[in-house]
Design goal:
Blueprint lengths: L1 H45 L3 H7 L11 H9 L2 H32 L5 H9 L10 H9 L2 E3 L2 E4 L7 H25 L2 H9 L8
Antiparallel strand pairs: 1-2
Helix pairs in contact: 4-7
Length: 205
């Protein structure tokens, strides 16, 4: 009798983790479907004609899949130039954002100075600025030359890729600083102290 009760209790304990695992996997699968739905819709419509989309909507298998849309994009738009512009913006912006995040993260994690926490919060606050709220001020800033005391410091950057690089770098600096500060703060302080004892400066560390 007691043996049967113990066996039943053990089976109940094994069944609970299994049910939790099934619920977790079901939730993950549902989220995957939700996030994949727009991509599936884009993939389906890319192989349909405009007339078919208007007649039957997005969510159906194309009657006669076609790649005419891809051919039209390649032939009728300067796609190579668009790709080049993407590389010209993303590579420098990513490099500068990561570089700045590493430097700021190192400073905020290993140095104690007045208003350090306040300055860190100011940098992190960049993550909470909606880009839409900055469109008009940034346009006015980059559309005219930068002058200080009547002297032109920078020319107008209108119709160049430099404003895009600066904006993406600035917006990415907040998250990279946060990540690098947490990462470097988790490293043993003995590593930095040992390097300094051996004669390394802060830049070498």
């Amino acid at each position: 009798m007691a043996s049967a009760a113990m066996t039943s209790a053990n089976e109940d304990r094994r069944a609970r983790p299994r049910s939790r695992s099934l619920a977790l996997h079901g939730f993950i699968l549902a989220m995957l479907v939700i996030y994949a739905a727009p991509l599936i819709g884009v993939a389906l419509t890319s192989m349909m004609t405009n007339a078919e989309i208007a007649a039957r909507g997005v969510w159906h298998i194309p009657e006669a899949a076609t790649i005419d849309n891809f051919v039209a994009v390649w032939n009728d738009t300067p796609l190579p130039r668009y790709l080049l512009n993407s590389f010209l913006v993303t590579i420098p912006a990513t490099f500068l954002s990561v570089l700045g995040g590493v430097l700021l993260g190192y400073v905020f994690s290993h140095f104690r100075f007045p208003f350090a926490v306040l300055l860190f919060l100011v940098v992190i606050a960049g993550m909470f600025f909606p880009p839409q709220a900055m469109l008009i001020p940034l346009f006015r800033l980059f559309n005219s030359p930068v002058e200080i005391a009547g002297f032109q410091i920078l020319p107008s950057l209108y119709d160049t890729v430099y404003p895009m690089i600066i904006i993406h770098m600035s917006l990415g600096l907040a998250i990279t600083t946060l990540l690098m500060r947490n990462f470097m703060g988790a490293l043993p302080s003995g590593l930095r102290e040992a390097a300094i004892v051996d004669g390394a400066g802060e830049w070498s560390v």
